[in-house]
Amino acid sequence: xxxxxxxxxxxxxPVLLYSENMxxxxxxxxxxxxxxxxxxxxxxxxxxxxxxxxxxxxxxxINLYLKNGNVSKGFKLLVKTYNKYPKKVQKFKIYKIFKIxxxxxxxxxxxxxxxxxxxxxxxxxxxxxxGVFKEAIKAYKQSISINPKQIEPRIRLSLALLKTGRKxxxxxxxxxxxxxxxxxxFAYYYAGKILxxxxxxxxxxxxxxxxxxxxxxxxxxxxxKKLYKMFKQDLDNETKK
Length: 241
Hints:
Helix content is about 70%, strand content about 0%. The protein is mostly helical. The chain folds into 2 domains: about 1-15 and about 150-240, Serine Threonine Protein Phosphatase 5, Tetratricopeptide repeat, CATH 1.25.40; about 30-130. It is elongated and about 65 Å long. The two termini are about 20 Å apart.
């Protein structure tokens, strides 16, 4: 399922385009630049309130935001600090992710100010690729609140929910997709996977797999032959008696 999901992301869903020089981030190495600190967020904020030019404490605060999963807040503070003290920030390891922090902060601002669906979806997909699933969920929900009839963002939201252990909510989101598009192959396919491997409801999973198999045609899925063959072979295995 993991391999199919990866291929599904790069071939079926719109890809978030970064600039050539943008730092590559992923779940494994995302926090590798961080230095350890014995401070808490509260204690660091108190120090910075007294001395706003204390760059070391500000960087430590940013690191803690990122480590605790409050990535958007960390990105925003990094951009703000760099704008004031660019040369000082460049001396710290965290500067490695400045470009992506700036990109994501600008994208978030555009999404919020303009109620921009595409910006929310790009933001969410960016967070997903970084492994920051809680932020991805928030962004997808914002997008869907603007236009509840969206299909692809709901599927991505379902997969992000699954990554955070909310398997029943993930299924519910895929069922919402089916209500909007009763012949959506991916909704049936991923519902079957979640039901079988996460919820352990084999009987119900088979119903979804059989429907997905009916919908699994090269013409309908509009994907390359190699990827189609993988899906078809996987469904053949899943529906084998």
